Amino acid sequence: MDILLSILGLLGFILLTAGTGVFVAVEFSTTSLERSTIDNDVATRGDSASRMVQKAHGNLSFMLSGMQLGITLTTLATGYLAEPILAKFFTPLLELVGLSESASMPIALILSLIVATVLSMVFGELVPKNMAIANPLGTARVLTAPVWHFNRIFRWFIRALNWVANHIVRWFGIEPADELASARSPQELSALVRHSSGTEGFDQSKVRIIDRSLRFGDVTAEDLMTPRAKVNTLDVDDSALELIRLAHESGHSRFPVVRGDLDETVGVVHVKDALTIPATSRAATLVGSLSRPVPAVPESLGGDAVLRQVRLAGSQLILVADEYGGTAGIVTIEDVVEEILGEVWDEHDNREEEREVRQVGRSWELSGLLRCDELSDICGYIAPDGPYETLGGLIMATLGRIPAEGDRVLLPVDSRRLIDAFTEGPEVRWEAQVVSMDVRRVDKVMVRPVTGTEPGQDEPAGQDEQDQPKGGAA
């Protein structure tokens, strides 16, 4: 009779451990599933198992409470049942090795507790958890139904526990939720995309495009625009021949038509407008008569709204107005595309002259118009916040004057800056050397990591492997 009870006790221990595993597997599978995955399964299969998973996921707070209750009950029952049963097997073995009956009993109980706990953790929790994470939908389809029926039986008790827990949570100023949020913020999606790069995920080019697309909504018209210092314009009194000449020299096809400067923009004109005029009349035709109205947007307008305005504008060009009512720059469809795809070149562009980023050994030759928030992705330097938007503005603010070609300056350190890959021992700083100026604007800058405390004090951190250009466009 004792042997039969022992065998029944072992079977009960196995069944209770399996029950714990069922609750654990359903808990991890339902919390791992996205709502879109469940809805797609319902639309594809439409069977009772998929609808049960959908119902359980829609009442996740109730389901999780029931699963916690089930895990607690089965674990307690497992410990209560397994310890004396296993002790009966350990006691004779301990007596065989020479221990007295008084000593073997407590040791057998301790051993049975350890074995029962280990078996319950491995087969009741860790194994089902790993299976559920590896195949959440398949696990949920098979195991959700019995857990749902268990919850229905103990519904009154589960709801009472939930009510108490929700009131305690509200005391902490947190509103309980009945289901997990399936939506993801652009920042979370961007992180997921970056972490998905690799041999079995997206390649780097796709990761870069998707990441830039997700972050596009955070940029503003000020970030996208071509600054007014680089905008080619035509005066209202210029002729159609001047329009053709400027298009040939610049490689651009659309130009703002101004009365004096960009603050007095009267419209925009396309080189095709000049080509439709007979050659004998082009010298006498003024571009002011050919121009079409051009919309203006504030600097703070978000990227999505800017894209919409550029698409709606018949000229695919809009003005960016600053807070004082002047014109800060222009945004074209090319500016928007380059924010997502990176530099886009055509047959009229001089790649070497217009390249914004060029790596030379362990230094970077950068355009002075690069935004400061782009520097961390390019070379690892994180610029502190300040009254500037571009690398050239940062250098001017650091020097306290208009730079001159050849000026060197140690860039300020941001408290959030990342430790560069070249850091070994001494703290790495970043030195900027002005390579060229465009009148009063910083055109090209050489940036490099250094370990000194004064500009030009020592060599870059790490030896240059080569002095030939290695990088491409950002």
Automatic annotation (TrEMBL):
GO cellular component terms, A-Z: plasma membrane
Domain named CBS: residues: 225-285, 290-347
Principal localisation: membrane
Glycoprotein recorded as keyword: no
Membrane topology: Multi-pass membrane protein
Record InterPro entries: CBS_dom (IPR000644), CBS_dom_sf (IPR046342), CNNM (IPR002550), FAD-bd_PCMH-like_sf (IPR036318), FAD-bd_PCMH_sub2 (IPR016169), Ion_transp-like_CBS (IPR044751), Transptr-assoc_dom (IPR005170), UPF0053_domain (IPR051676)
Localisation per UniProt entry: Cell membrane
Protein name per its UniProtKB record: Transporter of the HlyC/CorC family protein
Lineage: Bacteria, Bacillati, Actinomycetota, Actinomycetes, Mycobacteriales
